[in-house]
Amino acid sequence: MKYQSQKVAYWYILAALALFGIQVAGGLLAGWVYVSPNFLSELLPFNVIRMIHTNALIVWLLLGFFAAAYFLVPEEAEREIWSPKLAYLQLVILLVGTLGAVGSYLVGIHGGREFLEQPLWVKFGILVAALIFLLNVSMTVLSGKRTAITNVLLMGLWLLSLLWVFAFINPDNLSLDKMYWWFVVHLWVEATWELVMAAILAFLLLKLTGVDREVVEKWLYVIVATALFSGILGTGHHFYWIGLPGYWQWVGSIFSTFEVIPFFLMMSFAFVMVWKGRKTHPNKAALLWSLGSSTVAFFGAGVWGFLHTLHGVNFYSHGTQITAAHGHLAFYGAYVALNLAVFSYAMPMLRQREPYNQVLNMASFWLMTGGMAFMTFVLTFAGTIQTHMQRVVGDYYMDVQDSLSVFYLMRFGAGAAVVIGALLFIYSMLVVRRKEVITPGPANPVPGE
Ligand code: HEM
Ligand code: HEM
Ligand SMILES: [Fe+2]
């Protein structure tokens, strides 16, 4: 850690980790309701648990992006953050908004639009926090050194904040309502967040592999170009059945197929950098999460996304467990694992705990990634059977659900592994242990001497 103000990132990471814990615990609870449908149905209905699960996910991922920005921008720009005070104010606004949203969900107040259920004042608070953030990082970058990494990061963060404005537009016409809704939901994860991901991945690989900056930048530009080229019109894969013109079936199918490319490139980027890199950085855990993130993102977003993106397939699979399988692996690989890579890289420095013992952290990677992979497989099986019974044969929804119960039980098991992995990760971050360094001497002779 070179700059004092990077410490801001520490508090963002702590807040993110707390919400991460709540998010996966909420998921496990929702998974149990699938096994035992009346569980807590009076006290904490499924829709409320689900809102807490998905909203906590989005908010902690954003907190993680802010942490990453506050950590890497000073190093890239070679100066302190423009105003650490504003950064803390931004965090307080976000935390008050989060508590406000959770509180209102618990008493049953919400906007009803999936992922955008927050009460209006919370949405407004998020907007204000985003503006404070943009001002702060933009001033830092403008008055310091500009690099391709900060340019791409800022472009992603500016665009995603602007898209948030569509969260306020909620027309009565259901087709238009859905269209604007996807402007936020899809153009976040399949366009602007991808830019953020590429920039953060580039920063981590630069530090962890010691490869030349020019090489990293070339990859970054190609990834950004392919992500925007495919991702914007790729939104069409959500316009098939919501009452928009029929040509979207072809535009969506074709452009969303191209969306596989940037994810493939990000995976290749990570492995090629490790292969070409001249440095072996001691933080192996951060490298494991970086490689894992880009690989699982390729499978979760790229492969599992392509699985149901062609309109002829989506006609049958739309809104089944196939969608849930894809949603889980894509979010986990691309954004959860990436954030955990940043935390693994930054935390030991922020707490001055180097050299750092990474055993627990790496164990949590395998437990969580294994759990998510297993959950994806069982949901894909469930979704395939569901698609056939419900959409091809025409059985009733609830009858089909009854015959899927064994998969929901296995999903719960997989989810439990993920939760244990997440707790292990959080523990390894809160209690960062130093690696024991054995210095050769009379008590520890070098072997062979
Ligand atoms: C970091 C890991 C996780 C991520 C990124 C994640 C992400 C998501 C997302 C994006 C959704 C909305 C899916 C959609 O609309 O298709 C969702 C719903 C859900 N998640 Fe998770 N989740 C995670 C962990 C878990 C765990 C551990 C469980 C436990 C079993 C779980 C169970 C559920 C359930 C039951 C739903 C509701 C599905 C429905 O409405 O049918 N999730 N999750
Ligand atoms: C990291 C990137 C991605 C994330 C986080 C993600 C996440 C999600 C989530 C949560 C949903 C469910 C939305 C809902 O109905 O509530 C969804 C739907 C969908 N995604 Fe993705 N996705 C990503 C990338 C992709 C890519 C690259 C493709 C195509 C190649 C794709 C194709 C689809 C399709 C076709 C649907 C609609 C499914 C349906 O009709 O029910 N996604 N995605
Ligand atoms: Fe999409």
Automatic annotation (TrEMBL):
Membrane-traversing stretches: 12-35, 55-74, 86-108, 120-142, 149-169, 181-206, 218-241, 247-274, 286-307, 327-347, 359-385, 405-427
PROSITE patterns found in the cross-reference section: COX1, COX1_CUB
Family matches, as InterPro entries: Cyt_c_oxase-like_su1_dom (IPR023616), Cyt_c_oxase-like_su1_sf (IPR036927), Cyt_C_Oxase_1 (IPR000883), Cyt_c_Oxase_su1_BS (IPR023615)
Keyword Transport listed: yes
GO CC terms of this entry: membrane
Cytochrome oxidase subunit I profile domain span: 8-449
Membrane topology field: Multi-pass membrane protein
Major localization class: membrane
Family: Belongs to the heme-copper respiratory oxidase family.
Protein name, per record: Nitric oxide reductase, NorB subunit apoprotein
